[in-house]
Amino acid sequence: MEIDRKKNFRFSEWAPESGTPDNGNIDSEGTEVPTLCVILLQLLQQRYRSPELEYQLEEPWLRDYKDNKYFLNNGLLYDREKHTSALTIIDRDHISLILRECHDCPYMGHISEDRIKERMASTAWWPKWEQELSEYINTCEICQKANRKHGKKFGLLQHIEEPKHPWETINMDWITGLVPGGKENFNACLIIVDRLRKSMRCLLCHKEDTAMDTSLLFWNNIISTCGVPKIIISDRDPKFTSEFWTNLYDMLGTKLAFSTAYHPQRDGLAERMIQTMEDILRIFCAYGMEYKDHEGYIHEWVTLLPAG
Predict the structure, then answer these.
(1) Whole-number Å distance between alpha carbons of 92 and 98
(2) Of 119, 114, 160, whose CA–CA distance to 137 is shortest?
(3) Which residues of 130-151 are buried (b: 16+ CB within 10 A; e: fewer)?
(4) I need a surface site. Which of 78, 84, 162, 174 has the fewest CB within 10 A?
(5) Between the CA atoms of 199, 212, 189 and 293, what dihedral angle is there, to the nearest 10 degrees?
(6) What is the reported pTM?
(7) What is the percentage of the chain residues whose pLDDT exceeds 70?
């Protein structure tokens, strides 16, 4: 069983003191350990008040106190959420107790992070409690040993040989869901990026185009002007994996290198270009297919695309 070496430790501030049990109910000497309910009852019976309570109310995380996010009840400070309220804990010893009780004790069984957060949300609150709870669970040695990973192991990074000539290796991907524009009501763009010069071409098209339409578009705009690329890197879009597209590039002697969508080590160049283009086009397409500049002229996004 492999253990993540980066996560096989506990943070010192959460580590139980020597002689303090971590099993939840009974320690090594047979003394009963207080459960979560008992801990909270003890806090309530002691009328849990920090000597720095008045100072804490001026802290940045309690600036919403006047807006009813926090409220006092019998001298106890509570955090108010949409559907629940939780006792505010300030003392680090009590925080450590609650973290161990909500995760390590036998009746909790080292359950998933989401279920523990759901339980904790109505139990106790302190600043950045979700982040601390996540770190506490991720560094649990028992969870690292016992939990199994059901997915396949991640593969090694795939090296892409850098091209020596322009348009020798290209990345391709799509931008879809655009507002129809132009005389032909274009609603998509085929983004093609040259890996050597990092130049980009945006070819207007339709989301409904077939593999034949995409091949003709690529032939008329790329192959006829830039030549036949040696390697084409793209995701596994049905247009790129179709039999027609594959046979076409077999005859041309081009290698098709497919990757998964948004794979940063493989198709990252095209994905980053697409993200930038989407940010630009979103400005023009958010409220319609026309854009009025500061001089009052009206433009469609298809006419502004080359400027991007």
Answers:
(1) 10
(2) 114
(3) eebbeebbebbeebbeeeeeee
(4) 162
(5) 110
(6) 0.47
(7) 60
- Say how far apart CA 77 and CA 48 lie, in whole Å: 9
Is the domain defined by 36-146 classed in CATH 1.10.340.70?
A: yes
pLDDT in tens, 55-98: 444 454 445 444 567 677 776 677 777 777 787 877 788 888 88
pLDDT at res. 38: 52
Tokens 């904790």: give the residue. Answer: 120
- Distance, CA of 236 to CA of 256 (rounded, Å): 10
What is the topology classification, in CATH, of domain 169-307?
Nucleotidyltransferase; domain 5 (3.30.420)
Q: Which of 25-34, 211-220, 271-280 has the lowest mean pLDDT?
A: 25-34
What sign does the dihedral 234-204-249-167 (CA atoms) show? negative
Distance CA(304)–CA(286), nearest Å, equals 14
- Using only C-alpha atoms, the chain has a radius of gyration, in whole angstroms, of 30
Domain ranges of the chain: 36-146, 169-307
Percent helix, strand, coil in the chain (nearest 5)?
35, 20, 45
